[in-house]
Specification:
20 strands, PDZ, alpha+beta, Pdz3 Domain, 31% helix, 381 residues, 30% strand, Ribosomal Protein S5, domain 2, 4-stranded antiparallel β-sheet
Length: 381
């Protein structure tokens, strides 16, 4: 006989319902977890990560690309970071390391979270490093151009510091600039409207003493011949130091201070490093090579800072990352631009002494004091 149908008891129905909900909850959770993992691994976060980057001893050598070998692999060769020829140089010791910040792009959401949690890296909006409308290749080229400019300025500052001959020249003329047709690339500039000039800052100040529309006589040397060239000054809109819109008098040229000793040749090789912040350390390396005695006293010195052709040291970004990288490499003294001291004091690695610098001359004086155990300017004061 077929037993009569009996409806499930209330308890059985409840158990079945609970089991169904558990299975459904597990299935939904698994799908959500899989989706979360997929998005975390594949979706690019709108951030870049800044962290400690490579350091380079400016008194040593660096490996650079040297074409490809018979096997098709890229060859490397060692070259001096600061290569000086044509004049006697002095022996150096110790370290004068330039420092860098690493920039990691293309972060997944998980990468960004992991780097943020490590506290070794700092996240920043990607547009702070790669502005909208600019490709990564364009940014790389801009950074390389900044390094090239920094190298030239570092030479100028060092040579002026040790009284080697330099000259102020026209490195570029704007296409539609007031000076177009009057001044040429490689013209040596001696004076602007009767005011002697020998540096970029002096030339800019001399131009801005005048009003747009004024005619300024520019004293130059062209092909060995002194000349006086009149230029009607123009006007350009810009921003002052406070970010306010201003109109400025301009000449429309790019001046530069360059070596004026035909025997002296200086070439710099920093590898794949961009930006302007290596200026101070490159200048110190040139001074150390071209003057008697040791700037380091055999110590491991590292540092950072932009530099002008007048030897003024300017602030940079990523100071705490640079200090961390320097200490990991073995540095015991770090040269900090005065404008970065407050930030630097927020995270000083153990065993690293911070020395405040405002100029190339000041940095040399501080190193001379440090090498003999005397007090040097400190960020803490």
């Amino acid at each position: 006989m077929i037993p009569p149908y009996r409806r499930p008891t209330t308890l059985a129905r409840v158990n079945a319902s609970v089991s169904y909900r558990r299975i459904l909850t597990l299935a939904v959770s698994a799908v959500l977890l899989a989706l979360f993992v997929y998005l975390g691994l594949t979706v690019q976060a709108p951030y870049v990560a800044f962290g400690p980057g490579p350091t380079v001893n400016t008194l040593d050598t660096v490996k650079i690309a040297d074409g490809k070998g018979p096997d098709g692999k890229e060859k490397l060769k060692s070259v001096p970071v600061v290569d000086i020829t044509g004049v006697p140089t002095d022996r150096t010791d110790g370290h004068l390391n330039l420092t860098t910040v690493s920039v990691t792009d293309g972060l997944s959401l998980f990468d960004a979270l992991s780097m943020w949690a490590s506290r070794r890296y700092a996240l920043a909006p990607r547009e702070s490093q790669y502005p909208p409308g600019q490709s990564t290749d364009q940014v790389r080229k801009q950074n390389a151009a900044q390094m090239t400019g920094s190298e030239l300025t570092a030479q100028a500052a060092a040579l002026r510091q040790i009284n080697r001959p330099t000259k102020l020249v026209i490195a570029g003329v704007g296409k539609n600039a007031p000076a177009a047709g009057a001044l040429r690339v490689d013209d040596e500039v001696r004076a602007v409207a009767g005011t002697p000039v020998a540096t970029v800052e002096q030339m800019q100040a001399a131009v801005r003493k005048h009003k747009p529309g004024d005619v300024a006589d520019i004293d130059i040397v062209r092909n060995g011949q002194p000349q006086r060239v009149p230029v009607t000054l123009g006007k350009v809109d810009g921003k002052d130091g406070s970010g306010n819109d201003v109109s400025m008098t301009y000449l429309g040229v790019t001046p530069a201070v360059v070596n004026a000793d035909p025997a002296l040749k200086i070439n710099m090789n920093v590898g794949d490093i961009g930006g302007p912040s290596a200026g101070l350390m490159l200048s110190l390396a040139i001074v150390d090579r071209l003057t008697p005695g040791s700037l380091t006293g055999g110590k491991f010195i590292a540092g950072t800072g932009t530099i002008s052709d007048e030897g003024k040291v300017g602030p940079i970004g990523g100071i705490t990352h640079k200090m961390e990288a320097a200490r990991e490499e073995g540095a015991t003294v770090f040269l900090v631009p005065a404008g970065n001291c407050r930030e630097a004091l927020t995270d000083v690695p153990d065993g690293l002494t911070l020395v405040k610098v405002e100029s190339l001359a000041g940095a040399i004086s501080a190193l001379n004091a440090t090498t003999v155990g005397k007090p040097a300017p400190s960020c803490a004061k």
